Each structure stands twice: as structure tokens, then as C-alpha cells.
Inverse folding.
């Protein structure tokens, strides 16, 4: 016979429990989280930051806190206000994305130039912190892509090395790093003299980057003046010119994706955005420029890095999503613009080598084993290597002719490789991927410590 037991409330304990939020139970009251923190992994990284960093370190380099004892953090100051000064003709979706993710991405120069598979900068900043890296340390990204790790390390006062097989990634990263210090008045001169700026890059890049379609001689038309265009005064500095060039290539991408405005109008709007971003971040950093770290973006091979043994204090990288994205196809115009032979580059790109799918997959794993070995070699003992990676189970199951449930995740295979080279798993943080649910639903942050 079922016996019903009556429970008598004890001193409003339920009210006491519900009256206190989980956040205040986890975090000290003097730490105020940034807005828009809405995922479990973000709260976890915030908790780790509160345990690992001092109050002064949170104020300077914290990723997930807006204030410490009422004083705003540098991250909050970087992110507040209008994030990117998007053009009026930008899509509602794009405007909504940057507004919703104001504290996660788009701040500093991270939001310049869209690039597939790029990190959320806030997550990278948080990871650098919880890995125990401090100002003056050296951080490595052996597959740097758009340079997020190097930008964050620079802002945090750490030196950094970035390696990528694509020369365009090296160029892009350097230009975005330059944006932290490039003379804003020189950039404004390029805007004031926009016709000269536009015609200069149109002549310099337009024909050079044109490899197809065949028979076409100009990609964006003929410059509006017959004389050889010149950059405005002060814009011939290499850092200024590279920053302007990145804006030009960025505008080319928009012109291909959207026909709402002419290429000329797109370039003007994007150049305004670049100038706005550089001025905004430099205003926040005013008086603190000497605290910035030094970034060294290189074109190279992560399987054979030109770095001395045990000289790196922390490693963060994201391998190519196996062979799901052809980065060379995406960057064809930009690579041509800087004079790169794409077919030759393809032979060295991890994830693109091989002809048949099975050969590509096996070659990818072999390449990743070499990269893990190199990471272990250059990392100091006791330091951490974090790998952010997902797995396309459906794609791999077709290659291996097994069910998606039988597929061993890339993160699991990388962890096993690491164990062979003296790195053991410390933490595996799982989080959901937004925008790629049709191919990958989950991404893993695999944190490995060198024994």
C-alpha cells in the first residue's frame, strides 16, 4: 500500500533557494558579468577566470566581466557603443548579428574581414586567461587563419606567433594587427581623397587579381582618371597601405555577395567602417599602447615549425574542419591579388591534399599527427595546448562506410595523438555551434597539458 508522506516547509527554505541566482552562487558579488552571456561554456570560462585571475588582471584582460567593484573592465570599454558602424544598406541579419554578439565578436579589429570558421574573440581571450598565460608570455597559433589569437594576445600584452600556409592569412592578420596602431589621420586622408584611393587600388589589384573569367580585362571597370592614380599623402606607409588594401579586398567580397550597391559604394562604406574601428580601439588604448604585445604572423607549415623547443607558453588553434571547407576556393581572388599560385599552395594545405575522399581523410589525420607532435615539441612543460574542433559525422561516415554513430570524433583522435607526444587531457568543454547545424552541431575545446 502506497504511503503518502507530507512535507512541511522549513523556514521558507524554498524562498531562500529561489531568491538567489546561480550566478551569485558561483561568482563573487563584486564581479559583474558582461551582457549577452547565454551559454553554459561561457559561464564555465567566466567561473575559471574568477578563480585564476586577480581583480587587477580581470580589469585588464578579463573576457566575461563588465565591472570589478563597479569599475569597468577594458573588455567592456572595447565593446561598448556601436560595434562596427555598418553601412545603411547592410542586411538586417548582419546588423542583428553584431548587435546580439557585441561582447563576443566584432570588437577591436576582430570584426574586420569576414572569414569562414573564425573564432569568437571573447572565447579566445577567456581561453588564454584560463590557460594561465600572462603579459610577457608567448602564445602560438599554428593555423592562425584570420588572426584572432594574435589580435587577442597583442591586446592582452602577450607576444604571439601565428603560422598559416596561406600567405593571404598572414597578410590579413598583419593588417588587422596594424589597425591597433596605424595613424588614423592618414586613414581619414584616404577617405577624404576617396577617388584617388579607389582608383589606386583598382589599378593595382583589379587586373592582377583577375584570373577568370577568361577574356575579361577589368574586374570593376576602368579608373575614372587617365593618369596613374596615386595614394593620398601619408597613405604610402606600408601599414596604412596594407590596411587600405584589406578594406579593398573586403569590399570585393561584399560586391560579389550583394548587388544592393556598386562596388565603388561598397568600398566607400567598408573603408568608413575600417577607419571607425581603428579610431575606436585606439581611443580605448590611448595611453596603453606600450602595453601591447608583439605579433609575428608568418607564412609557413605547422607540420614543421621554425620555433625552438619548449619556448611557447600557450597554444590555441582550430584545425580545418577536416575537408569540409575549401579555403583556397574561398580566397581565390585575394590570393591572386597578392600574387600567390593557388595550385601550388593547394599541395601544402592541410585538409586539401589527396584526390579521393578516403585519401584526403587519411592524409588529414597524418598531417594532424605531425602538427600535434610539433605543438608538444615547442610547448613548455606544464603549459597548455587548446584545440577547438568539431566533427562532421555524416561526411566521415560516408567516407568510412560506417554509421554516423560509429564515427570517432576528430577531438577524440587528436586527444589520442597528443597522449603519444606527452600531452594529457585536462578538460574537454563542449558547446553548440550556431549556423552550422546542418554539418556540425557540436564543437569541442580540448585542453591538453604537456606532462
Amino acid at each position: 500500500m502506497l504511503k503518502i508522506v507530507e512535507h512541511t516547509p522549513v523556514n521558507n527554505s524554498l524562498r531562500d533557494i529561489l531568491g538567489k541566482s546561480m550566478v551569485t552562487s558561483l561568482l563573487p558579488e563584486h564581479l559583474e558579468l558582461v551582457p549577452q552571456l547565454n551559454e553554459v561554456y561561457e559561464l564555465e570560462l567566466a567561473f575559471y577566470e574568477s578563480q585564476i585571475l586577480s581583480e587587477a588582471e580581470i580589469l585588464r584582460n578579463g573576457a566575461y566581466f563588465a565591472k570589478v567593484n563597479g569599475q569597468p573592465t577594458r573588455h567592456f570599454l572595447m565593446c561598448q557603443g556601436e560595434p562596427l558602424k555598418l553601412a545603411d544598406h547592410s542586411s538586417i541579419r548582419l546588423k542583428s548579428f553584431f548587435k546580439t554578439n557585441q561582447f563576443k565578436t566584432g570588437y577591436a579589429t576582430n570584426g574586420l574581414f569576414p572569414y569562414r570558421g573564425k573564432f569568437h574573440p571573447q572565447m579566445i581571450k577567456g581561453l588564454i586567461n584560463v590557460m594561465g598565460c600572462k603579459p610577457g608570455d608567448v602564445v602560438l597559433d599554428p593555423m592562425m587563419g584570420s588572426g584572432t589569437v594574435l589580435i587577442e594576445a597583442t591586446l592582452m600584452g602577450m607576444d604571439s606567433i601565428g603560422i598559416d600556409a596561406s600567405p593571404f592569412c598572414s597578410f590579413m592578420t598583419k593588417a588587422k594587427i596594424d589597425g591597433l596602431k596605424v595613424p588614423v589621420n592618414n586613414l581619414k586622408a584616404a577617405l577624404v581623397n576617396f577617388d584617388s584611393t579607389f582608383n589606386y587600388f583598382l589599378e593595382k589589384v583589379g587586373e592582377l587579381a583577375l584570373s577568370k573569367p577568361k577574356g575579361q580585362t577589368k574586374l570593376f571597370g576602368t579608373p575614372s582618371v587617365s593618369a596613374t592614380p596615386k595614394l593620398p599623402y601619408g597613405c604610402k606607409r606600408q601599414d596604412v597601405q596594407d590596411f587600405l588594401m584589406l578594406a579593398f579586398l573586403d569590399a570585393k567580397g561584399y560586391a560579389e555577395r550583394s548587388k544592393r550597391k556598386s562596388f565603388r559604394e561598397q568600398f566607400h562604406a567598408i573603408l568608413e567602417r575600417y577607419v571607425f574601428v581603428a579610431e575606436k580601439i585606439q581611443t580605448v588604448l590611448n595611453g596603453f599602447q606600450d602595453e601591447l604585445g608583439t605579433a609575428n604572423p608568418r607564412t609557413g607549415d605547422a607540420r614543421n615549425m621554425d620555433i625552438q623547443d619548449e619556448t611557447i607558453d600557450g597554444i590555441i588553434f582550430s584545425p580545418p574542419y577536416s575537408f569540409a571547407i575549401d579555403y583556397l576556393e574561398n580566397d581565390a581572388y585575394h590570393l591572386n591579388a597578392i600574387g600567390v599560385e593557388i595550385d601550388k599552395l593547394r599541395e601544402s594545405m592541410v585538409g586539401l591534399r589527396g584526390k579521393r575522399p578516403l585519401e584526403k581523410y587519411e592524409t588529414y589525420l597524418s598531417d594532424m599527427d605531425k602538427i600535434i607532435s610539433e605543438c608538444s615539441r615547442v610547448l613548455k612543460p606544464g603549459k597548455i595546448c587548446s584545440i577547438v574542433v568539431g566533427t562532421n559525422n555524416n561526411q566521415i561516415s560516408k567516407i568510412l562506410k560506417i554509421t554516423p554513430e560509429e564515427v570517432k570524433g576528430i577531438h577524440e583522435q587528436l586527444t589520442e595523438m597528443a597522449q603519444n607526444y606527452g600531452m594529457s587531457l585536462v578538460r574537454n568543454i563542449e558547446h553548440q555551434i550556431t549556423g552550422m547545424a546542418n554539418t556540425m552541431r557540436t564543437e569541442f575545446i580540448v585542453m591538453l597539458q604537456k606532462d
About this structure: The first helix runs from residue 13 to 18. The two ends are 59 Å apart (CA to CA). The chain has a mean pLDDT of 86.
